[in-house]
Design brief:
The structure is a single chain. The protein is α+β, with helices and mostly antiparallel strands and 144 residues long. It is built from four helices and six strands. Strands 1, 2, 3, 4, 5 and 6 form a six-stranded mixed β-sheet that branches. A hairpin with a 2-residue loop joins strand 1 (34-36) and strand 2 (39-43). The longest helix has 15 residues, at 2-16. The radius of gyration is 19 Å and the shape is elongated. The model is unreliable at 1-35 (pLDDT under 50).
């Protein structure tokens, strides 16, 4: 009986899907992941109301494309690719802690961080009606 229960739980965990980073089911690892000061930082998909860039998603892409400058050394070397960058939208809407999750080249990575750090205040995310810190990950594409 006990062995059958363990077998069923194993199958259930496989069906839910394991989080590759921790080995735990994704549903148990997305409520919050770290702290800023004494406040939790929630994952983008784990809040009741997601943070929003002023003007929406299209405005975010326009902002990134308008501010992004292709570094000369990467341009002349023909380097292109996608920089995956993580940042925190604080409870007051400010953007901080821009970090490269997966980079391409140092100059492209630095440019992606620079652009994120230029972002204006967002409308903050909410959990149970309270504004909270939220981690967001975006991709900035550098294409020749």
């Amino acid at each position: 009986m006990k062995l059958r229960l363990i077998h069923k739980l194993s199958i259930l965990l496989l069906v839910i899907g394991l989080n590759s980073a921790s080995g735990f089911p994704q549903m148990f690892t997305t409520s919050f992941s770290s702290s800023i000061g004494s406040s939790n930082v929630y994952e983008f998909d784990a809040v009741d109301i997601r943070p929003e860039f002023p003007g929406g998603e299209r405005a975010l892409f326009n902002f990134i494309n308008g501010e992004k400058r292709y570094p000369a050394d990467a341009y002349s070397a023909g380097i292109e690719g996608r920089v995956l960058i993580s940042f925190i939208i604080a409870a007051d809407g400010t953007v901080s802690n821009a970090t490269v999750v997966r980079g391409v080249d140092d100059s492209l990575n630095r440019e992606a961080v620079r652009v994120v750090n230029l972002m204006p205040k967002w409308t903050p995310g909410k959990v149970d009606g309270e504004t909270v810190n939220v981690r967001h990950v975006i991709t900035i594409v550098f294409r020749l």
